[in-house]
Amino acid sequence: MVTRRKFTPEYKAQIVLEILTEGKSLSAASREHGIKDSVLSRWKQEFIERSPMVFENQASSNNCEEQIADLERMVGRLATELEMQKKVTNFLK
């Protein structure tokens, strides 16, 4: 029974970046790291296909921060309104 090796995402990215930036061939990287060139080819393809997501997350993160700020303002406003209603209720008793 052959056990499958597991590689961290960081390790995969490091190897793909070596291939892309240093101009290594898949076969050279395969020999150097002891990983089949078909696996490296798949990693490279996934890396290229998912690279636009890096920039989408930044926009999404900014949008989340704006939503959090809006919700915090809403909570503050509602807390103030609730406090005013409590005072009015206590005054009318």
Task: Please summarize what this structure is.
It is built from four helices and no strands.
Structural overview:
The chain is an all-alpha fold. It folds into two domains: about 50 residues, Arc Repressor Mutant, subunit A (Orthogonal Bundle), CATH 1.10.10; about 40 residues. Helices cover about 85% and strands about 0% of the residues. Helix 1 packs across helix 3. The longest helix is centred in the last third of the chain and has 41 residues.
Characterize the overall form. Answer: rod-shaped
Number of strands: 0
Radius of gyration: 27 Å
Structural class designation: mainly alpha
Tell me the CATH architecture of the largest domain: Orthogonal Bundle
State the name of the first-level CATH class of the largest domain.
Answer: Mainly Alpha
> What is the average per-residue confidence, as pLDDT, rounded to a whole number?
88
Architecture blueprint of SSEs:
Elements (H helix, E strand, L loop, with lengths): L8 H14 L3 H8 L3 H14 L1 H41 L1
Helix pairs in contact: 1-3, 2-3
Throw out a few tags for this protein.
93 residues, mainly alpha, Arc Repressor Mutant, subunit A, 2 domains, 4 helices, rod-shaped
